[in-house]
Here is the input.
Amino acid sequence: MLRDITLGQYYYADSVIHRLDPRVKLTATLVFIISMFLFHTFLGFVIAGIGLFAVVRLSGVPFKYMMKGLKTIWFLLIFTLIFNIFSGSGTVIFEWKFLKITWEGLRNAAFMGLRLFFLITGSSLMTLTTTPNQLTHGMETGLRWMKVIHVPVHAIAMMMSIALRFIPILMEETDRIMKAQQARGADFEEGKFKDRVKALVPIFVPLFVSAFRRANELAMAMEARCYRGDEGRTSMKPLKYAKRDAFAYILLAVYVAAVIVSDKVVALL
Here is the structure.
C-alpha cells in the first residue's frame, strides 16, 4: 500500500505537460482547486472532468498509475460519502429509525466525492510532472513579489521542496522496516483493529529515529556548504516563459470562463 502513494513522486516522461514552466503548473493547480468550489452543478463537474482527463492524457502518465494514489484514501472517500448521504435534509427517499436518506444528501455526497477525486488527482498530477527542484524554483520565482511584505518566500519554497523530496524516501524506509519486522514474525494484517494499531508501534519508533537522523544529516550538509538562504544566490537555470506557457494560460482562462458560465446557465434554467 505504501508503494501506491503517488504524491511527491516524479514520473519521468517527455510530454508537453512536463515541459511547461513550473509557475504555469502551480497556477493551474491552484486555479483548478479553487474552481472545484465555484460551481454547484453536474455540468461544472463534467467540464472539470474533461479538462482533467485531457491534461492527464497529455502528461503521458498512465491513468492506472494515477489511480494508485487513490488506494490510500478509499477510507476517507467512503466515510465522506456516507456522512453526506445521511446528514442531508430535504426530500426523504428512505428512512429507518434514526437513519434518513434524502435526494439532497445523495447530491451532496456525489459532489463531495467528485471534488475529493478531482482535487487529489490534480494535485498528484502536478507533483508527477514536476521535480521538487522545479517546484521550489517556480514557487520562489512566482511569489517573489511577496518579499515586499517580508514573507520568507525562499524558506517556504525550500521547506516544501524538502518535504516533497522526503515523502518517497520515508515511504521506502517504512516499507523496509515493515519487511524487517515481518521477517521477525510481526503480523500487521490479522487480528483486531486494536491489535493491528499496537503492531504499528515498532514501525513508528525506528521511522521517527530515521527521519530525525536524515534531517540532522541534511542540516549539517547545508551548513557545511555555507547555505545562508536566498541572500545573494543565483539560479543555474533561470525560468523563462515559452509560447506553450502562454497557450496554457489561455486554455486555463477558457476553462475558468466555461466553469463560471456553465454554473450561471444551469442556475437560469
The mean pLDDT is 80. The chain has eleven helices and two strands.
